[in-house]
Amino acid sequence: QVQLVESGGGLVQPGGSLRLSCAASGSIFSTYRMGWYRQAPGKQRELVATITSGGRTNYSDSVKGRFTISRDHAKKTVDVQMNSLKPEDTAVYYCNAHHVFTSNNYWGQGTQVTVSS
Questions:
Q1: Which residues have C-beta within 8 Å of that of residue 75, sequence separation ≥ 6?
Q2: Nearest Cα residue to 78 out of 48, 101, 103, 100
Q3: Is 25 helix (H, G, I), strand (E, B) or coil?
Q4: Is 18 in a helix, a strand, or coil?
Q5: 29-86 pLDDT, tens digit each
Q6: What whole-number distance in Å separates Cα of residue 51 and Cα of residue 38?
């Protein structure tokens, strides 16, 4: 199993930037594809970005070119740098760990991101 703790959410003005970080513990970090998902009020949880152990990334079309996901194997962290934020990026952001062999999924508790003037 793996435990995930997110940090870095908050309130930011449109056009601003935030960096979210997720710290993982409890299992072999390299066996997980890591990712960020978000859920806005009244909407389903949706993909933001994922990154494999080898560094291959995948982004939703809505954040491509604005967000950058990265992972640090030594620190067991996965970050997402969010630039040019828009009001529609407002959501609770969740860190996800997907085990590549068992397909088990683990989630953090979520961190609120609010983009508003």
A1: 23
A2: 48
A3: strand
A4: strand
A5: 888 999 999 999 999 999 999 999 999 999 999 999 999 999 999 999 999 999 999 9
A6: 16
